[in-house]
Amino acid sequence: MLTEDKDLDWNKYFRIGGFDIRHATMLKDVTATEGATFRQLTLVHLLALQDPNLLPQLTVNSDMEARISSLNESHVSLVNKTWKFGGDEKGFQLIKYLISHFPTCCITDEEGCPVSWVLLYDYCAMGLLYTAPDYRGRGYAKILISTMATRLHAQGYPVYCFIEEENQLSYRLFKKLGFTEDPSYRAAWYEFNY
């Protein structure tokens, strides 16, 4: 596919994500043949929620329930500056696109400003999970993951995420919420012509 796709311009910057690392040698060979450069950005676990009944039954009081909302375009800069791969124009444009076209879920403070959120990528994986430091340890991430997973499952979508191998905190959180992985599968994100 990579060698036959005439729409792929090997002279320009692009990324490939969720790529099975068992095929990394082939990717390296094709990249060399095309005269391009590439590097691995991150290595990830793929976790999926096969059975939404495994999600813990969280008790959310009415005050908290009223603060569960969705992100909108006015929140793009906030999300961009907190995202590990953001902080630049490319990140801003991607986050704007995701917020505009895909489900999001957030928890706001008393003034209505998001303090914790999760987005959905254009390939349907949950991601960009974040909680502001002053609000950590309150169970916000559990609430957001459970809320988003329940919504996705109810609409017939797969419920999954990619978690960087070094992000053990998120890995343990998703596992505790009933997500499982195939330990033989590893994926990576690569960027080309950086």
Helix-strand blueprint:
Elements: E1 14-20, H1 24-33, E2 38-48, H2 62-66, E3 68-69, H3 76-82, H4 89-101, E4 104-108, E5 114-120, E6 126-131, H5 140-154, E7 160-164, H6 168-176, E8 180-181, E9 187-192
Antiparallel strand pairs: 1-9, 2-7, 2-8, 2-9, 3-4, 4-5, 5-6
Family: Belongs to the glycine N-acyltransferase family.
GO cellular component, one term: mitochondrion
Keywords: Acyltransferase, Transferase
Would you write up a description of this structure?
- The protein is an alpha+beta fold and 194 residues long.
- Among the domains are: 14-41 and 186-192, no CATH class; 58-148, Aminopeptidase, CATH 3.40.630.
- It is 30% helix and 26% strand.
- The chain has six helices and nine strands; from the N terminus they run E-H-E-H-E-H-H-E-E-E-H-E-H-E-E.
- The protein has helices spanning 24-33, 62-66, 76-82, 89-101, 140-154, 168-176; strands at 14-20, 38-48, 68-69, 104-108, 114-120, 126-131, 160-164, 180-181, 187-192.
- Strands 1, 2, 7, 8 and 9 form a five-stranded antiparallel β-sheet that branches. A four-stranded antiparallel β-sheet has the order 3-4-5-6.
- A hairpin with a 5-residue loop joins strand 5 and strand 6 (126-131).
- The longest helix has 15 residues, at 140-154.
- It is globular, with a radius of gyration of 18 Å.
- The protein starts with 13 loop residues before the first strand and ends with a strand.
- The mean pLDDT is 94.
